[in-house]
Amino acid sequence: MEHDFVYADKEEVKEVQGILNEIIVKVQDTLRDEITFQPQIVGSAKRNMITYDRKSNVGFDFDINLYVNDYGDYDDEPEVLRRILRLTFDRIARGYGYSYCEDSTSVLTIKRINTFRSCILHSFDFCIISNQEPDYYIRFDKKANNYVWAKRKADLKEIDEKAKWLKVNGKWSEVREHYLYLKDNNDNKYRKSISIYKETISNLFNIYHNKRRK
To answer: Rounded mean pLDDT of 176-184?
Structure first.
């Protein structure tokens, strides 16, 4: 087996989330007179399904949406807004032993790295979203080499409804098992966890819901 995914220890996740909250609060306090935002943990952390691969040197990660409430002067300057947030996270997070932000297409990422073991213990991915227009986030357009407000993909409403059905009908332990199975057998390193989660929910919903309809 190429991978060996397991669920992260709950106590460790709780401890790391506490550090994350401290960093975010300090960033908010620092920028309060210039920019305000509200954080929201999303993805695997929100679903209590944080995993990591024991065969890799990369630990678990958190996905966080930063809903920017007040960014008046930077409405037409997403690059400036993102830079301000990046530099502030750099300054605060470094004091907690994290790396400088990596600025990728959709998110800013800070990592806790164990240099002795040459591994990433965990990381935080921050996506900057407009609170006035929550369908839009700051994205780096590689072709144009600039930052833009880009429309987000459709939400997970349909998948969430199917997941709720599986929970109500006592199938969530199987969801968690099947999710690990699909992650272990995924050979596409570019495939995101959300895609595997969607497949997990769809597979089990189709099995159990269709059984009930027959």
So the answer is: 98
Retrieve residue 137's tokens.
């986030």
Q: 70, 24 in Cβ contact below 8 A?
A: no
Q: CA 122 to CA 158: how far, in whole Å?
A: 30
Which residues sit opposite 37 in a β-bridge?
Answer: 68
Cα Rg of the chain (Å, integer): 19
Helices (H), the chain: 10-31, 78-94, 157-168, 172-184, 193-213
* pLDDT tens per residue, range 102-131: 999 999 999 999 999 899 999 999 999 998
Average of per-residue pLDDT across 188-209: 94
Q: Which CATH number goes with the domain that contains 31?
A: 3.30.460.90
Q: Distances from the Cα of 171 to the Cαs of 42, 156, 175, 202, 206, in angstroms?
A: 22, 19, 6, 13, 12
C-beta pairs of 186-191 under 8 Å, 24+ apart in sequence:
186/3, 187/2
- Tell me the mean pLDDT in the region 78-88: 95
Q: What are phi and psi of 138, to 5 degrees?
A: -85, 125
Q: Percent of the chain, pLDDT > 90?
A: 81
How many angstroms separate the CA atoms of 7 and 33, rounded?
A: 40
In this prediction, residues 140-169 reach a mean pLDDT of 90
User: Same domain, yes or no, for 71 and 174?
Assistant: no
Lowest mean pLDDT among 51-60, 144-153, 171-180: 144-153
Q: Which residue segment(s) compose the domain that 166 sits in?
A: 157-213
